[in-house]
Specification:
- This protein is of the alpha/beta class.
- The chain folds into 3 domains: 206 residues, Glycogen Phosphorylase B (Rossmann fold); 181 residues, Glycogen Phosphorylase B (Rossmann fold); 209 residues, Rossmann fold, CATH 3.40.50.
- Helices cover 41% and strands 15% of the residues.
- A 7-stranded parallel β-sheet has the order 3-2-1-4-5-6-7, with helices on both faces. It has a 6-stranded parallel β-sheet with strand order 10-9-8-11-12-13, sandwiched between helices. It has a 6-stranded parallel β-sheet with strand order 16-15-14-17-18-19.
- α4 runs antiparallel to α5.
């Protein structure tokens, strides 16, 4: 099975990654996605809802650090740790080789659970560095290099050569990028392939660039230096001085916004230029279709960073728009000067303005360039062609056209919320449950109990940005959590909505993980289990310990919805069937006038109890 590994996923500006994965899924290739860090924000383009791949996020820092802080005889970890020592000696501490090793150790476990054999990565960066360590766990990998990633961000040709040498193959997004890579690593020339980022032009509405209205100009990208927005503003001021009516909108966000705002004021362009901020992919498509011309003034910034093959140019051409850009890097591979648009030297506002002026005054030429650009996209950058090329390079067996059998996937989700030291009963249960192939143990805490052995590794909820994204993208589930709140009894509002967000996220994971049952391992997880049961219809059960801190009034409201469980709280009115038989017998409160302690929960041999419970009908 194939996995994509990212430093962060998703990232708003990296739509080409989403496009590529959607195309591979459409061709029948099942995918898994690993993200080494939480996403930067909760914004999601609408089409990500079509992505079927499960996204694996890292556990909390203390869990990731377990192999660094606990001695282990794990041979895979020992090999990764030795490689980290070598990399630190060879490349320096700034490349954080031991962090890469710990990330690899965690993701190796998660990928193996899901049958992954090969990884593909975009950018020669932290994720590709991590993939070198994942080879120690038996995985193969490939990566797509762009140019800025290895020329500026990585800035270490020796490490880049190791990345290329260890990879099954390396893809370059342009001929320009491939030439650079071959120059750095000539011995691997036969394994470095130019694979364009593709696009499906049928998914883009078509513009009318030849309409005679005043010029509507659009530019899209992160507000950073090498996108050249400052130069574009200078060009717009020159058009204004020539009394050429033009309206420019810039879509995107980034650190250069204050400088661009100041430049707009300095050049007196408030009536001509709008900074629109971040828009969704569907909103961007509509704005492209309503424009006459796309412009992107790519340049090389003071650090040597530059755009290589900007996807937004392809998107504009897919809408039938002519393009004005620069002669930088791979741009001429997309924009053919005098055929699909016009190219200026980088950072030359005068020539850029002259090209804009030419097309502003010639609607027929705009229409001609737009038609030629659409044909060029369909011929060279067709998504079917580019994704097919990439898929043909993956190792045999990693692109199986069927997913692993759901029968082999964990069917029971066990929810764990333990703030302090785990008692002997819990440790006994976790030892069995964490090792059972039919169980997923999920902790809602951000760190394990301090006495939990490092060999018992539950899963963890992802970062709050992921939970918030699910909450925003599923208004139907959110509405359901609102409608059932009164049924939960006198539950605290903060607790309810915290667990509601967790439940909405977990509900979106049910189709991906094939869970069939939910179990609250202690009373503190009952609310979450109840919410998830109500959102998905999955049967729920619970184990209630004697000395829990939860409201009995709330539990009394929630537990009737549970199909079975065990209750060790003598003060809790609960009638669910005790199929687990974990309940501690209620002893007399006093013996010879001495108050007796109430046992938390009985410590039993877990296998017979839980095997019986796991076999209960759904």
């Amino acid at each position: 099975m194939l996995a994509y590994l990212f430093s962060r996923f998703p990232v708003v500006s990296q739509t080409f990654c989403d496009t590529e994965m959607l195309a591979l899924e459409a061709a029948g290739l099942p995918l898994v996605i690993g993200s080494l860090n939480p996403p930067p924000n909760s914004f999601r383009h609408e089409r990500l809802a079509r992505l079927k791949a499960e996204v694996i996020y890292p556990p909390p820092g203390p869990v990731l650090d377990l192999p660094l802080t606990h001695s282990t005889v794990d041979s895979v970890w020992q090999a990764m740790a030795a490689l980290a020592d070598q990399h630190e000696a060879a490349y320096g501490k700034s490349f954080k080789a031991h962090v890469r090793a710990r990330n690899a150790w965690h993701f190796a476990r998660e990928f193996k659970k899901r049958g992954v054999t090969h990884l593909h990565i975009h950018f020669a960066n932290r994720a590709t560095h991590t993939a070198i360590f994942l080879k120690k766990a038996g995985f193969t990998y490939s990566f797509t290099a762009h140019a800025q990633d290895f020329m500026v961000d990585l800035a270490n040709d020796d490490l880049l050569r190791e990345m290329i040498r260890e990879a099954t193959f390396t893809a370059a997004v342009s001929d320009y990028s491939r030439d650079l890579l071959v120059r750095i690593c000539p011995d691997a020339a036969g394994r470095i392939h130019r694979v364009y980022n593709g696009i499906d032009s049928t998914q883009f509405p078509k513009a009318k660039p030849g309409s005679p209205e005043p010029l509507r100009l659009i530019s899209i990208g992160r507000l950073i230096d090498f996108k050249g927005f400052a130069v574009l503003l200078e060009a717009i001021s020159l058009l204004r001085d020539q009394h050429i009516p033009v309206a420019l909108q810039i879509i995107g966000e980034g650190p250069q916004r204050p400088g661009l705002e100041a430049a707009i004021d300095r050049l007196q362009l408030r009536s001509h230029v709008r900074l629109r901020g971040v828009l969704s992919q569907e909103e961007i498509k509509m704005e492209l279709a309503a424009s006459h011309l796309f412009a992107l003034a790519c340049l090389t910034d003071s650090k040597g960073a530059t755009d290589i093959l900007p996807t937004v140019i392809l998107e504009a051409m897919a809408c039938g728009l002519p393009v004005v850009s620069t002669t930088l890097a791979g741009v001429p591979e997309m924009v053919r000067h005098g055929e699909t648009g016009l190219l200026a030297p980088p950072a030359d506002a005068a020539v850029l303005a002259a090209h804009l002026c030419t097309l502003a005054q010639d609607p027929a030429q705009r229409a001609s360039y737009g038609s030629a650009g659409l044909a060029h996209v369909q011929d060279v950058f067709s998504l079917t062609k580019t994704a097919g090329h990439l898929a043909s390079l993956f190792p045999a067996g990693s692109t199986a056209t069927h997913s692993p059998s759901p029968a082999k996937a964990p069917v029971t989700l066990v929810l764990l919320d333990v703030p302090g030291i785990a008692g002997p009963a819990l440790l006994t249960e976790l030892e069995f449950l964490c090792g059972h192939p039919q169980v997923s143990v999920l902790s809602t805490r951000q760190s394990p109990p301090p006495n939990l052995p490092s060999t018992l590794l539950p899963e963890y909820l992802p970062d709050a940005t992921v939970l918030e994204a699910a909450w925003r993208s599923r208004p139907d589930l959110v509405a359901l959590t609102e409608s059932i709140r009164a049924e939960a009894g006198p539950v605290d509002g903060e607790s309810y909505y915290l667990n509601a967000r967790r439940a909405v996220h977990l509900a979106t994971q049910v189709p991906l993980r094939h869970w069939k049952k939910i179990h609250a391992l202690r009373a503190s997880s009952v609310l979450l289990a109840w919410l998830l049961h109500r959102l998905t219809g999955l049967p729920a059960s619970a184990t209630i310990e004697a000395s829990h801190q939860e409201s009995r009034s709330v539990l009394t409201k929630l537990l009737p919805a549970f199909s079975h469980g065990s209750n060790s709280d003598p003060k809790l009115n609960s009638t669910f069937p005790d199929l687990l038989q974990l309940s501690a017998p209620f002893p007399p409160k006093r013996l010879l006038g001495v108050k007796l302690p109430v046992p938390l929960i009985r410590v039993v041999e877990p296998a017979p109890v839980w095997e019986r419970w796991l076999s209960q009908p759904e």
